[in-house]
Request: fold
Amino acid sequence: VLNGEKWFSSSASVADIALVMARTDPDAPRHQQFSTFIVELPNPGYRIIRDIPTMGIEGPLSHILGGGHSEIEIKDLKVPAENLLGGEGQGFNMGQHRLAYGRLRHGMHNVAMAQRALDMATARVTERSTFGRKLSERQGVQFMLADCASELYMARLMLLHIAYKAEKGMDLRQENSIAKVFLAHMVHKVVDTAIQLHGALGYSRDTPLAAWYTHIRAQRLVDGPDEVHRWTVGRNVIKAFEAHGTTASAAGGDLL
Ligand SMILES: Cc1cc2nc3c(=O)[nH]c(=O)nc-3n(C[C@H](O)[C@H](O)[C@H](O)COP(=O)(O)OP(=O)(O)OC[C@H]3O[C@@H](n4cnc5c(N)ncnc54)[C@H](O)[C@@H]3O)c2cc1C
Reply:
């Protein structure tokens, strides 16, 4: 019998099945206290209180993107023993495993969105003239495009490296955390630059840029906020140095 509350459960309002992670043994070691249960929906013990209004994309488009972010009440929810997913106490490890690939997927979305924003920015500056010259002829504008292209390229290489490690069954947690933080900032910067180069048009809702700008702000929070990932990354840098006398293994050095 499960009881509890959860908010910010993405896509819960369009789900037919929920995976509910619950603390089943508070006395077990920290990472073995949780188990995951398969809950078929609808279920009388499982209630969506509301979809939380956010600064992200709302309305019909949010459903195309997988629904909103729900607040859920779980009250005396009866789950048969055979609905335990994996073993007892495996919930945390399974969750972390899923999150690793989820972050990779977020990263791919971020690259795609940044690429589209850079294309839009470039199209705009090749059309628009101010003070007698095309924006694209101005070196200041070219520098802005160059910075975006550079970060987009770094982001692509990070994802390729992580995908390579995933394919080889290697530990990718450190690179995944580094990339998760970098890509969230990268996409924000590229979309912000595209808005800047569109001028007032970028601020309007006549292009998708404004919606993207607010939507992707969540990337610095979802699947762990920047600071928590940077905290982990920093500790791993120190551990690598202590173990090997170099930080290379904590800084993507194994690709070389
Ligand atoms: C759009 C969206 C969708 C989400 N979807 C889901 C979902 O589907 N499932 C799910 O389980 N969760 C989901 N979340 C929740 C998300 O994972 C959490 O918001 C995130 O992990 C941060 O936790 P918190 O909100 O409790 O912030 P807190 O833990 O309260 O942290 C607040 C801030 O404090 C700082 N901070 C926290 N810890 C440290 C530290 N150790 N060192 C330094 N600074 C620190 C960070 O700046 C952090 O942003 C979603 C969130 C958003 C915004």
